[in-house]
Write a structure and sequence with these properties.
Number of helices of chain A: 24
Protein name (chain B): Sm domain-containing protein
Strand order of the largest sheet of chain A: 4-5
Number of helices of chain B: 2
Order of helices and strands of chain B: HEEEEEH
Shape of chain A: globular
Organism (chain B): Candida tenuis (strain ATCC 10573 / BCRC 21748 / CBS 615 / JCM 9827 / NBRC 10315 / NRRL Y-1498 / VKM Y-70)
CATH topology of chain B: SH3 type barrels
Number of domains of chain B: 1
Strand content of chain B: over 45%
Oligomer: heterodimer
Distance between the termini of chain B: 10 Å
Helix content of chain B: 10-25%
Strand order of the largest sheet of chain B: 4-3-2-1-5
InterPro entries (chain A): NAA35-like_N, Naa35_N, TPR_NAA35
Number of strands of chain B: 5
Pfam family, one (chain B): LSM
CATH class of chain B: Mainly Beta
Largest interface: A-B, 43 and 45 residues
CATH architecture of chain B: Roll
Distance between the termini of chain A: 95 Å
Structural class of chain A: mainly alpha
InterPro entries (chain B): LSM_dom_sf, LSMD1_Sm, Sm_dom_euk/arc
Chain lengths: 706, 77
């Protein structure tokens, strides 16, 4: 302090010169930035106050002090709970980093230049050495999940990766961590511990947790014979994890009564490291929730991994992504969401690590809709000179490359939380709309200039196969965008009719497009092949093409059947809501009196994401206003719901994917519940969760019809 | 004693002793007429623990002593 001068008096007398209540500030400082400042002595912001509330044991905690067997087991149990609490919307300083041993290992690693696994130490006692291996293993797993989170998850929504600028063992190899844990297991076996099995199960469980991210490197033999050895070996890891979890859950009494070294878990880290965090209490979701969530992680990954091994074709892949991942995503643990996204599409653009790449998927997706055996996609059938062929090829390659980017964007949607799925779909709509414009221009140009193209039927109408595929994908995205909005409860009660009404329109367009362009075009190609076959010598090749096209059309028809049933349900909901309005239960039109702005403006705002889309043409407010019928009867609604129900029941008979079956069943139940609701309910209009996330329950007691 | 204009302190490295014995070292960025400070690039020392805390607002009521290094003080006068 010798170099300092006390200016307390000088300074405060100096500020008395400040006039007119102004502040004196640096010219480089924007006062708005001041809102980010941490206010000293404000208990809600200032973590520097934390030491005042800590006990002497917490303040003076020594990590190298020998621990007992009970403390080892108790600490590992506590750390598992803190780990899963971190995944439950909490932060590292409030969970795992509140353990002094974790802070010591990770902080030491961050500060050290010598970064080998052998450099870690938490004291010399046997149990201290075992604890060291456990803490290193846990920190490594956290480090991996931070990387996964930064790569494919959303900060604060899925996971909080803020790590107090600590390095969670980035350069330590997972294999070294697993070996170190194995050595720790050996140490326990050779020790005088009384509950060796209890401790070993905890160490094994951590080994299995660290093995989970291996999934994102496994290579699936997509559409082929599953690699049973690989399947078994990963299943073994998962099964062992599940077994350990069961053991631990069954011995809750034991684990929960073990001691913790006094002062080992506290708010210390919040005061000792960076002050960029809001102070908070240590967060612990408890034993039951921890091991329930962890079991879910293992069970879900087991299911996902098994299913991916048995995906037999592109249709099955599509169903898997839609019903097993996208619709189920809310049930998946954040660990699995992250790992799955990395597992699905790799850095080298391979799908599930197979030899099947994004480019193959893009071509297959198109071929399995309507592009197979087209003039436009088959340069051998072009009758052009070399220079022109090269020119058209270049343009086609560019289009396919852009299409790949669109397919990639769609693949990134699946494992996100539902809010992000909707946001990404909104973004992808623009991508697919631009692709459609680009593709139409390309197909029209090569048709006009080089006569490359396909006829839709015996008329001269251009089939525009690539553009038709893109349009079909875009329509699905538009429908999904509105439906997820219903699931997320984004729409107000008075808007709900307009949303179903719009979906009804889009599904009709989709069905019409699928039937009148996609199916029809494939049928036309089949008829051409049959005619050609009679005269051709190469009958076998033509027969193979015919068979493939027939299969494609069967799959298309199956999909159309689903959409027909779905559209009937949507149509029924529109009728139902129209009927409820007629019964004066709710108002969907003429809402001017209730708003600051006009309902028309609200309507336009709601469908703004479709404004820039050229086709299908956007529905207007005038069309909406005239969509209500004044004579909808209860019988008409019930008949419509019954028809939807029958169509969906019929469709469900041919469904093989379990989760799709369940999904369709929930739609069928929705039809039943609406019919029941129509026959009696409360005397107010209410919207509450229904059997299917896209169809809430509408409750309204109607006047008794005399 | 000559009074130094408050503007002159802006941008200087100050040491603030708080009433709870913590010490803050940082650059004075803003001061208001009530003596509340806004300091940037602040390091907090609490007993033996020293850490970076960044941008900090220090209410007048929490300030026990203010120090400045001798050389800076000479240049301000």
């Amino acid at each position: 302090m010798n170099d300092y001068v006390d200016i307390t008096e000088d300074f405060f007398s100096s500020i008395s010169q400040i006039s007119n209540n102004r502040v004196v500030k640096s010219p480089f400082f924007d006062l708005l930035e001041g809102t980010r400042a941490i206010e000293i002595n404000n208990p809600r912001l200032d973590t520097g106050l934390i030491p005042n509330e800590l006990s002497a044991a917490e303040l003076n905690f020594e990590c190298s002090k020998p621990i007992s067997e009970s403390e080892l087991s108790g600490l590992m149990n506590k750390l598992f709970k803190l780990l899963m609490s971190w995944f439950s919307s909490s932060s590292l300083p409030l969970t795992v980093l509140s353990c002094r041993y974790v802070e010591d290992i990770v902080h030491g690693y961050t500060m050290s230049l010598d970064r080998g696994i052998e450099t870690f130490s938490l004291g010399d006692g046997v149990y201290n050495r075992v604890l060291k291996s456990f803490v290193v293993g846990l920190s490594k797993f956290i480090g991996i999940m931070i990387t996964v989170g930064n790569t494919v998850l959303y900060e604060d929504e899925d996971i909080t990766t803020r790590n107090m600028e600590l390095d969670f063992l980035t350069d330590i190899m997972v294999d070294d961590v697993l070996n170190d844990l194995e050595s720790a297991i050996g140490l326990v076996k050779r020790s005088a511990a009384q509950h060796k099995e209890h401790i070993i199960k905890q160490l094994m469980l951590l080994q299995d947790l660290n093995s989970l991210p291996i999934l994102s490197n496994l290579q699936i033999n997509l559409f082929g014979v599953p690699d049973l050895r690989q399947l078994q070996s990963f299943q073994d890891i998962l099964n062992r994890g599940i077994e350990c979890l069961k053991f631990i859950a069954d011995h809750k009494q034991f684990y929960e009564t073990q001691e913790l070294p006094v002062g080992s878990v506290s708010k210390w880290v919040q005061a000792s490291l960076g002050n960029r965090h809001i102070p908070g209490d240590v967060y612990d979701i408890g034993f039951d929730e921890t091991f329930k969530q962890m079991t879910n992680v293992f069970e879900q990954l087991k299911q996902i991994f098994r299913k991916t091994n048995y995906i037999k074709d592109i249709e099955a892949l599509d169903l898997f992504l839609k019903y097993d991942i996208q619709h189920m995503v809310n049930e998946y643990h954040v660990i699995n969401k992250g790992i799955f996204q990395l597992f699905l599409i790799r850095e080298d653009q391979s799908i599930l690590g197979s030899v099947y790449h994004l480019s193959d998927l893009t071509l297959d997706l198109m071929n399995h809709v309507n592009v197979f055996n087209c003039n436009v996609s088959n340069p051998k059938t072009w009758n052009l000179n070399n220079a022109d062929t090269e020119l058209v090829m270049d343009a086609l390659s560019q289009l396919l490359k852009d299409l790949e980017a669109g397919v990639y964007q769609n693949l990134t949607v699946y494992a996100n939380n539902r809010c992000r799925q909707r946001q990404l779909i909104n973004k992808n709509l623009l991508v697919w709309d631009s692709l459609q414009v680009q593709s139409e221009n390309f197909e029209m140009e090569i048709y006009n200039n080089y006569k490359i193209g396909d006829k839709l039927s015996d008329t001269d109408e251009n089939a525009l196969p690539i553009s038709s595929f893109i349009y079909s994908t875009k329509l699905e995205l538009m429908i999904e965008f509105l439906l997820i909005g219903i699931e997320l409860e984004l729409y107000r009660e008075f808007e709900i009719y307009s949303i179903y009404w719009y979906i009804n329109y889009l599904t009709k367009v989709y069905i019409n497009h699928s039937t009148e362009r996609l199916l029809k075009f494939n049928k036309y190609k089949i008829s051409k092949i049959v005619a050609k076959k009679k005269k051709s010598k190469n009958k076998q090749e033509l027969e193979q093409k015919r068979e493939k096209l027939t299969k494609i059309n069967e799959a298309l028809q199956h999909k159309i059947d689903y959409w027909k049933g779905f559209q009937r349900l949507i149509n029924s909901v529109c009728l139902l809501l129209n009927y409820l309005q007629n019964q004066k239960m709710i108002k969907f039109d003429d809402l001017t009196a209730n708003f600051i702005t006009s309902f028309e403006s609200l309507f336009r705002l709601r469908f703004k994401p479709f404004e820039s889309i050229g086709v299908p043409s956007q529905l207007t407010f005038a069309q909406y206003s005239s969509s209500f019928a004044s004579d909808v009867s209860q019988d008409e609604v019930i008949n419509s719901l019954n028809m939807a129900k029958e169509a969906l029941v019929e469709y469900n008979k041919s469904v093989t994917n379990d989760n799709e079956k369940q999904w369709i069943s929930s739609l069928v139940k929705t039809c039943f519940s609406y019919i029941l609701e129509l026959k009696g309910g409360k005397n107010v209009f209410e919207v509450s969760p229904g059997y299917n996330t896209y169809f809430p329950k509408f409750t309204a007691k109607l006047p008794v019809i005399e | 004693m000559t009074t130094i204009a408050p503007e002159k302190f802006i941008g200087s490295s100050l040491r603030v002793e708080l009433s709870d014995n913590r010490v803050l070292d940082g650059v004075l960025t803003v001061v208001d007429p009530f003596g509340n400070l806004l300091m940037s690039n602040v390091y907090e020392t609490n007993k033996s623990n020293r850490r970076e805390v960044g941008l900090v607002s220090v209410p007048r009521a929490t300030i026990s002593k203010l120090y400045i290094d001798k050389r800076t003080y000479q240049s301000l006068k």
